[in-house]
UniProtKB/TrEMBL annotation:
Coiled-coil zones: none
InterPro entries tied to this protein: Fido, Fido-like_dom_sf, Fido_containing
PANTHER family named among the record's database cross-references: FIDO DOMAIN-CONTAINING PROTEIN (PTHR13504:SF38), FIDO DOMAIN-CONTAINING PROTEIN DDB_G0283145 (PTHR13504)
Designated name of the protein: Uncharacterized protein
Database matches in PROSITE patterns: FIDO
Cited Gene3D superfamilies: Fido-like domain
Length: 249
């Protein structure tokens, strides 16, 4: 199953390459559509009540429809800025380290000065109470260990980028390094890695939240990343299919 999905992903990469160069208006519109949908769904996965129409009005017109809380609008605008930030970093060949991850968080939570870009100062937990996150005192050390192993796995080239990303994402979620905003940062890092490796950014839809969290729990509880790997590859295939349709029209 893994090999067949990887083969299809690479075949789609070749199909996209056959259309190069792709016009700037097409790529710009594709990126803007991605950002809108990523912000809407990532916010919804984390409980933000903004509707798609409200999110669209906010990002495209800076209009606050719907009478929601100010923090709901701010969260969406912050996430939009973080999308552009990780894209620019990825295209600039930046290396993942603790400073980069903290910087992403500082944008995601830039309205909360006390916690923006800072590791947690109180214990927190995942949705699943059976999986223990890192304690405050060990968080920097655990982050350093996971980042080092992530780079070592990438350098070994023994695993596909989707396997590496799934492993890294699950371990970041288990550490849960920030007081809040861990989900957004983790999903942004997924797309940082995909873009940096020449793939399309992906969106975990709010309807897929249960499967997404179950896959993370399986990775951390059973040391089995397969469900998360499958989800990431399925989302890449969906992103590729949509982009191929766009450039053929």
């Amino acid at each position: 199953m893994l090999a067949s999905k990887l083969d299809q992903i690479e075949a789609n990469q070749q199909a996209i390459a056959c259309h190069l160069p792709i016009s700037q208006p097409v790529t710009d519109q594709a990126w803007q559509d991605f950002v809108l949908n990523f912000v809407y769904h990532s916010c919804h996965v984390d409980g933000n009540p903004l509707t798609f129409v409200e999110t669209q009005a906010l990002l495209q017109e800076r209009a606050t429809l719907g009478g929601k809380r100010l923090k709901d609008y701010v969260e969406a605008v912050n996430l939009e800025a973080a999308c552009y930030y990780i894209r620019d970093l990825a295209l600039d060949s930046q290396i993942v380290d603790q400073n980069l991850i903290k910087k992403i968080h500082s944008i995601v939570r830039r309205d909360e000065i006390a916690i923006a870009g800072q590791y947690k100062t109180a214990d927190n937990q995942l949705i699943s109470p059976d999986i223990l996150t890192a304690e405050v005192w060990e968080t920097p050390m655990r982050m350093d260990q996971v980042i080092q192993k992530y780079h070592n796995i990438k350098l070994s080239q023994d695993q596909s980028i989707f396997e590496v990303i799934a492993w890294f994402h699950a371990h970041l979620e288990k550490i849960h390094p920030f007081q809040d905003g861990n989900g957004h940062v983790g999903r942004l890092l997924i797309n940082f890695d995909l873009i940096q490796n020449g793939y399309l950014p992906i969106i975990i839809h709010d309807q897929e939240a249960s499967a997404y969290y179950a896959a993370i729990d399986q990775a951390n509880d059973q040391d089995d990343c397969q469900a998360l790997i499958d989800l990431l590859m399925d989302k890449q295939l969906a992103a590729q299919a949509s982009f191929i349709k766009r450039i053929r029209n």
